[in-house]
Design a protein that fits this description.
Elements: E1 4-8, H1 12-23, E2 27-31, E3 42-43, H2 46-52, E4 57-60, H3 67-76, E5 82-85, E6 103-106, H4 114-123, E7 130-136, H5 162-165, H6 168-177, E8 180-188, E9 200-207, E10 210-218, E11 225-232, E12 235-240, E13 245-248, E14 251-254, H7 261-272, H8 280-298, E15 303-304
Parallel strand pairs: 1-2, 1-4, 2-3, 4-5, 5-6, 7-10
Antiparallel strand pairs: 7-11, 8-9, 8-15, 9-10, 11-12, 12-13, 13-14
Length: 307
């Protein structure tokens, strides 16, 4: 008998999760506020879905601002299986009840990019003197066929904006370099690509294993880029996640990465043991960093991490 999965939200990322779970052998149902979905069992609410059957695995892939309510509804409806929440975990830090879920994680799938995996193995927890992360892509290219202004990413109230939608880099900085200590930042809504959400940030922070970390992220770049550069102990690593390459000093390695590979690896890890999947606690650390970035940009000084 096939395992059953439920995907909450049927936007572009929800459809992608459903496609990957199809390939992993799940019978996939969806919760969609847009109504019935062709060729797929669909429900108008989480409660209705859980009343119809129990699911082994639930993916929360609706708007960031609706994640907390979806988790609460899952808990009330009695779901006790696996839960994966799309990143970021929440729009703002609040106490989070994880329910009685067997295992819960956050969908930072770039942890499972082979270039990132090779980089983390090469670092092996070592100290790095300087690191830079860059990600940029024009918002209008994120969801082909839809007007950018009509997507939740363009709306501050829905939990959109570059800082939250592109928070992979914040998760990777912490995952590769250890907990963050303090942060300064400039950014916000600098262009006109969103309705009222932020679109560009330049962030400076210190982490446990690297005193100088810069993170630049935006949804303004018409030439998509996603790179990580690290300098430590006389060595340099440069990771290009779009090209699928990792250069160590002068030696370059190339990796084959298909469109859905990182999602499939994330789901397999979540199903098997949860190893290396971002936990709710780690996800909340990223949300706290997001809020500290916003606080730092609004004020004249560094923001220290709360004890």
């Amino acid at each position: 008998m096939k395992r059953c999965a439920l995907v909450i939200g049927h936007g572009s990322i929800g459809r992608r999760h459903a496609e990957v779970l199809d390939g992993l052998g799940f019978a996939v149902s969806v919760v969609s506020r847009r109504g019935a979905v062709a060729d797929r069992e669909s429900f108008h609410s989480v409660t209705a879905a859980l009343a119809a059957r129990q699911f082994d695995y639930v993916v929360v892939a609706n708007e960031t601002g609706a994640h907390e309510a979806a988790l609460a509804e899952l808990s009330r409806a009695g779901h006790s299986g696996l839960v994966l929440v799309e990143k970021p975990l929440m729009a703002a830090t609040r106490p989070l009840q994880a329910g009685r879920f067997e295992r819960a994680g956050v969908g930072y799938n770039l942890r499972f990019h082979p270039v990132v995996a090779a980089l983390r193995e090469a670092l092996a927890g070592r100290h790095v003197e300087m690191a830079s992360f860059y990600v940029g892509q024009w918002l209008g290219d994120w969801r082909p066929g839809r007007e950018a202004a009509q997507t939740y990413s363009a709306s501050k109230a829905a939990g959109g904006g570059a800082l939250r939608d592109l928070s992979h880099e914040l998760d990777l900085a912490i995952w590769l370099l250890g907990p963050w200590h303090r942060v300064a930042a400039l950014g916000g809504r600098l262009g006109h690509v969103t309705v009222d959400a932020d679109d560009a940030w330049s962030i400076l922070l210190s982490c446990a294993r690297c005193p100088v970390v810069t993170v630049q992220l935006n949804c303004l770049d018409r030439q998509p880029r996603r790179t990580i550069t690290l300098h430590g102990g006389g060595e340099t690593w440069h990771a290009d996640l779009i090209a699928g390459t990792l250069t160590h000093n002068e030696m370059r390695r190339a990796f084959e990465v298909e469109r859905n590979d990182t999602f499939a690896r994330l789901h397999r890890a979540m199903i098997a043991s949860g190893e290396e999947v971002c936990t709710f606690d780690e996800g909340l650390q990223v949300v706290a960093l997001i809020e500290a970035v916003e606080q730092a940009a609004a004020g004249p000084s560094w923001v220290e991490k709360a004890a």
